[in-house]
Design goal:
Blueprint: H1 2-19, H2 22-29, H3 39-48, H4 52-64, H5 71-86
Helix pairs in contact: 3-5, 4-5
Length: about 90
């Protein structure tokens, strides 16, 4: 009984943080780290992004790691540029 209560408490806490954008903010702030994320992860962030600053943070991440020479990253760069600067 107590275990169910504790589990539901933490599930509710996690759901509230998701609704308030905590995990999304964390994902975008992780782009400032020293490691290059996979193109799959960055494409997922692209799909979650809802403002120009978030798209720019993805581009900054790609440029900082000189990842544009790889086709999957280059395609992502093109999608972002087409969406905001040429589209």
């Amino acid at each position: 009984m107590i275990n169910n209560f504790i589990k539901s408490f933490f599930d509710g806490y996690k759901e509230a943080r998701i609704k308030n954008g905590y995990y999304k903010d964390r994902d975008f702030s992780e782009l400032e780290g020293p490691y290059l994320f996979s193109s799959e992860h960055l494409n997922n962030l692209y799909n979650q992004a809802d403002c120009e600053e978030e798209y720019e943070s993805i581009l900054d991440h790609l440029y900082r790691h000189d990842a544009i020479d790889v086709e999957s990253y280059s395609l992502l760069e093109k999608k972002i540029i087409d969406k905001y600067w040429e589209g």
